[in-house]
Structures are given as C-alpha cells and as structure tokens.
Amino acid sequence: MEGTVIYKVTLAANDGKTVSGTYTFYIKGNQVRKEIKLTNGYQDEVVMNCGTNKVYSLQNRNGKKYAVELSMPQMLKNQQKFSGFSLKNEVNDNRKIAGYSVYKANVNYSDGSSPEIYYTKEWNPTQPITYERFPNAKFLPMSFSYTNEQGMVMTFEAEKIEAAPVENAVFRIPPDYKMISYQEYKQLSE
Q1: Tens of pLDDT, residues 118-141
Q2: What are the start-end ranges of the H helices in 33-96?
Q3: Is residue 88 a contact partner of residue 108, using CB atoms and an 8 Å limit?
Q4: How confident is residue 25, by pLDDT bands cut at 50, 70 and 90?
C-alpha cells in the first residue's frame, strides 16, 4: 500500500478530561511517517525507514528543532508483547468506516486482554512495525482503542484513506532539524 491514512484520535484521561486531534500515517514502500497533532498543541512526528533500519523522532524544544535517532531494534523489542495476537469472534459488521466495509473482532493478546477492533481486509501495512499494537497485521485497523502506560484511553477511528503516490520529501528530515542521538537528547532534557 502506498498512500495516507488519517485517523481521528481522542485521548481520555482518568480525571475525565479529553483532548482530540489527528493521527496521520504516510506509507511508501519501506518508509512510514506518523504524525499526531492534538488540539492542546501536542505534536509528535516519527519518520521510519525500514529498509535502512533508521527511525527519527522530530522534536521542537523551545524553538530548537531536533531529529532524534531512535533504535529500530528497541522499537521492535517493545512491539514483541503484541506479536502473536489473534482475531476472535470475527463478523462482517455491515458498516463502513472511511468509505470501507469493515469487520469487527476481538484482538486476543498473550497477556489475556481482548480489545475490540474494526478493520478492513482491502488494505494491509507493508511493514510489520507500522502499527505498534498490530505487528504483521494482514488488515488495516479502522477503529480501535487502548489504554496507554499512563492510564489514558486512546481511541482511533479512520476518517480518510487515500491510496495515492506519496512524495519522497515527506520522509526526509527537514534541513532545519539537527540530527542527534537519543543519548544526546536525554542529556538536553535533564
């Protein structure tokens, strides 16, 4: 698949406060770019080249822009807890999300959790690491939720899928970003 997938994302904290935004995936061959932009101003961008095993997090700290090199092996290791999942209770849901017919199922993970998901079989990610919680998925997640490490419930629903060429420039580190290691970034953050 080459193209763009845009999700509406909502984050709900334990105190009842919510924030919304978009989570956009740009996909082309071995390259994936993920951008989350929330209404509270939070923004995070990750650029991955699975062919070269390079991953960068684009950070803007007080006007200083950094492309922080992350560890692809560490990202794959973090994803291992989600590998080997299975889909149970699959049904054709007779509804459409972002214009696509979807199936509904429960994702069974090795830790015993079994969240609900809606997905389409018409597309699937070309890279196993594209969706952290769905490694090697043979489907495209269309609507799903999970609770992150801070206890925040994150809900994603696809709004738009555009199967179209993506410019190579989308995957380049902007020239005004200084490339640094993760260790250097941690030192700056202290």
Answers
A1: 999 999 888 989 999 999 999 999
A2: 72-79
A3: yes
A4: very high
Predicted confidence (pLDDT) at residue 189 exceeds the cutoff of 80: no
Q: Are 143 and 121 in contact (CB under 8 A)?
A: no
Q: How far is 128 from 146, CA to CA, in rounded Å?
A: 19
Alpha carbon distance 73, 34 (integer Å): 18
| CA–CA dist 12, 147 (Å, integer) | 9
What sign has the CA pseudo-torsion 27, 30, 36, 37?
A: negative
Are the C-beta atoms of 47 and 33 separated by less than 8 Å?
yes
Global confidence as pTM = 0.91
Cα 151–chain centre separation: 18
Helix extents (H) in the chain: 72-79, 182-189
Query: DSSP string covering 162-186, please?
Result: E-S---GGGGSPPTTSEEEEHHHHH
Burial class (CB in 10 A: 0-12, 13-18, 19+), 91: exposed
What CA–CA distance (Å, rounded) separates 22 from 68? 22
Residue 40 in contact with residue 17, Cβ under 8 Å?
no
Tokens of 31: 């390259």
Give the pLDDT of residue 23. 98
Evaluate whether 31 touches 48 at the Cβ level (below 8 Å). Answer: yes
Quote the DSSP letter at residue 81.
G
